[in-house]
């Protein structure tokens, strides 16, 4: 059900700076921590003896001590100490380890074939650490299959209805909307242009009451990381000038029915205004947590399955990007399974 050979977000680097990160990813427990030299290390998150959660144990330097029976493991996953009996190290006691990269504010973990990790780049999230942008961060646990969230993000027709009072408005429909789909290699692009519209209620504090051309260019990088290049420009003005709000949507399947959703939204305006940070964070939270998440969750409940195609849904022309993404992921997962 999941593509293992890919980089998944385990959390933000500032989270790891604050302490170890424990997540269930692709239905496997994973623990990420800083070793004695400051580098990130990632291992399976449960003890192979009785499967106790290792994040509840003691992590000191390069060692992890199980909170249940005291087995000790090093950063490479090897069991190095058994406090019981004659101290013999049991068979099958080593932890699985995973490649991990810290890049541009994100902690990435590779859960598949380690030999393939080095040849696969992580997604560019440069705006997160670019001093030209102010960035707010968020996290959601979504009770739905991750592909339903990908569908939602590649289809930017829904904001005019679902987000009409936050990040969009009913004006962003009909002849005002222009959509272009393209696929470049394994990257699926879904690009939208909304011509000569008013700023949405949530973004009016940044743009004012001027009319604008809004460009919203979403791209899926398999397995499940999406980057939105969002721009508000003067009507008929150059698209390299204006308000830029790049947004990262980094999805990680927890299991078949729940998804970790990490997001970060940057802006290139009033970057030193901390009060504006709170406004933008609230706009993002409302759109993602109060509007998107309940709708996606309830769609999952109504469907009763994560296999959208099995239900033979009605299709709109603007569904092309989401459909192509599903077909692409199905193919990649099937090819991985045949290795």
From TrEMBL:
Please tell me whether the keyword Iron is annotated for this protein: yes
Provide the alphabetized UniProt keywords. 2Fe-2S, Iron, Iron-sulfur, Metal-binding, Oxidoreductase
Determine if Protease is one of this entry's keywords: no
The Rieske domain is annotated at: 7-109
| Pfam families the record matches | Rieske, VanA_C
Q: What Gene Ontology molecular function terms does this protein carry?
A: 2 iron, 2 sulfur cluster binding; metal ion binding; oxidoreductase activity
- SUPFAM superfamilies on file: Bet v1-like, ISP domain
Task: Please give the PANTHER family that the UniProt record associates with this protein.
Answer: 3-KETOSTEROID-9-ALPHA-MONOOXYGENASE, OXYGENASE COMPONENT, IRON-SULFUR DOMAIN CONTAINING PROTEIN
Q: What is this protein called?
A: Rieske 2Fe-2S domain-containing protein
